[in-house]
Write a structure and sequence with these properties.
single chain; about 230 residues; alpha/beta; 6-stranded mixed sheet; 4-stranded antiparallel sheet; 8 helices; 10 strands; about 30% helix
Length: about 230
Amino acid sequence: MLKIEQLNQHYGESHILRDLSLDVPSGECTCIIGRNGVGKTTLLKAIMGQVASTASRMTYNDVDLLKMRAEKRAFNGIAYVPQGRQIFPLLTVEDNLRIGLPVRTDKAKVVPDMIYELFPVLKEMSKRRGGDLSGGQQQQLAIGRALVLNPSLLILDEPTEGIQPNIVQEITNIIRRLNKEWGLTVLLVEQKLHLIKTLADHFVLLDRGACVARGKGHELTPELISQYLSV
């Protein structure tokens, strides 16, 4: 379980995250929601150690993340798919996937077959450069690269943003399968309400860097949507 208490983060004089506390139950999908600019991506970057932050507690499976360098967190079972995918465009699809192999505890030397079973297009295009893939295919590559680590917690930042509808549905189905069938814990930032209701066991609603509501996925009411999510 990921547990955060009183997380604060500043950019210069701007106070981005404000005494934010968060529990991500093991084996379930927790969705971070809120309008643009409320701190959702900053929260994920703080968990991954990519931005400086303070907290009274930040642990995963009782391991103190506050004392762990960013590059070591993957070795603790945490995989991160950032917004914008950030694949290596000049490397082949296979080489993009192989980057995660040194993190695996089983010391595997080849990309696991399950990655290609989940994303057959990556097998078909394994020798193509990552930059030659479409946006939806690159997102599949980014998720596949994260799964190569064999994580116990998968963190995704708006994985369906800017993706064509048929690939959105495919990615949604895969996230649901990973969570419900494989028991992978998922922490997800997502804006599409129908996907939130499809995937989320729990939601955490942010506004101005603070948690203003939380609950089970089905408890995301029209009133909350109207007040905090509607444009």
